[in-house]
Amino acid sequence: MKKNNTQNNDPIGIFDSGLGGITVAKALMKLMPHEDLVYFGDTARVPYGTKSRESIVRFSVENAEILMKHKVKIIVVACNSSSSCSLETLQAQFPVPVIGVISPGARQAAAATMNNRIGVIATSATVNSGAYDKFVHVFAPQAKVFSQACPLFVPLVEEGWSGKKIALDIANEYLKNLKKYKVDTLVLGCTHYPLLKNILRQAMGAKVKLVDSAEEVVWEVKRVLQEKALIKDGRAKGKYEFLVSDRPQSFEKIAQRFLGDKIKIKLVNTK
Amino acid sequence: MKKNNTQNNDPIGIFDSGLGGITVAKALMKLMPHEDLVYFGDTARVPYGTKSRESIVRFSVENAEILMKHKVKIIVVACNSSSSCSLETLQAQFPVPVIGVISPGARQAAAATMNNRIGVIATSATVNSGAYDKFVHVFAPQAKVFSQACPLFVPLVEEGWSGKKIALDIANEYLKNLKKYKVDTLVLGCTHYPLLKNILRQAMGAKVKLVDSAEEVVWEVKRVLQEKALIKDGRAKGKYEFLVSDRPQSFEKIAQRFLGDKIKIKLVNTK
Question: Which domain holds residue B55?
Fold first, then answer.
């Protein structure tokens, strides 16, 4: 791959398997309102969390290539499944810093736990990768990590049923083992899960700390940009570009759910 | 596209967005045990039912091209979302007969209803296409069709929760309007739904007839093969080839759920 001339006034690139990563984009806009952003959601191939490691790596490399065409200065992998399977490949293959959501979430969980028992809820791909276990142990070698895949949470959020009794029933079913293991900290290891926070709090009890990886990663992005002298010049408000590989059936409804307000989204062709 | 020399000893081609269409493959094996089959499941891009019409058409054309490389004599579109969005395009573009699941299911529903009130449950793509409404009216112009998208049913089946109380709660939520409309016939307009038959019967009541499109399409395939003199010679047992574009995380478990027994499945590269 050709060396990219990274420049501090180039945009921050973010990709996700779909629209969930918009929560990361929003957090970045809030923390660094002057930075330009290019977001790519691979809505044609969403979800990633049920697919194989090999496919997730291949999709992630293609997504990063799309962002590189937009001359991004840093790549933020907003998707947990993609971060947990492809981060090392992306870091080896692309000439800009690549930041995933796993390490920031794991560090925050390690800092938050008092009893060294940490729960992680995520997709099957993320759970099977063992990435959270690995990174939690970097920051808290003595901690025990209990993971639970929750494949129904993403469609539940996209259906707009986060507030229904059924959502609580499903959460209780998935979380019963984590409650039994007495975790005092729960990592929301998928960008959709923060939209289930109320339900998760009800299911786990008010004392369990919820760690939102999407919230944590933006601090890591800021730290890396500062360290590498990549902060944008001037005080002009950032420009935002949102790209997707498909406009799914319920696109407007789902985008609205994540964004809260209207943003113009462009369709791009992928493989 | 080059004209294909179709021959009666070539295999039957079947594609689906994922593994749900294996139910169609199994029904074909039972009805015509001498025929060879090539099945392709686009597991890398599954599901289709939430995606746009344009993407579904593009994916379907690519899937049909994969089957044509295996010299199939007929293409069976086992996926309802794909049948409802792309059948006309495929029929125009490929030199072999292309059969979808919508028309056979609609015909069966039109024959089964006594009160001319037919319910259809399907993905968002299928419901939005209006394909069942259109085909039911071909066979029963006076019938009323009531459609309901049920996006949580597919992940529910893939999670293996078809027998749980939560599945019944979700079914009751989705079906409450169809019950109110007093449909006497319900089309299961997605290849995953037959695995929820018990739950659907409980939710709708024993008097409502359930129409399984996957069961109906195989009769249409046989009829077309006979009509076009494409029935395989001899009495040797058919050979089966199963291809997928990804081996998802829970692949073995899901394949097992649909097949009931072990079949060797090969990974092929798609875009």
Answer: 12-101+215-267
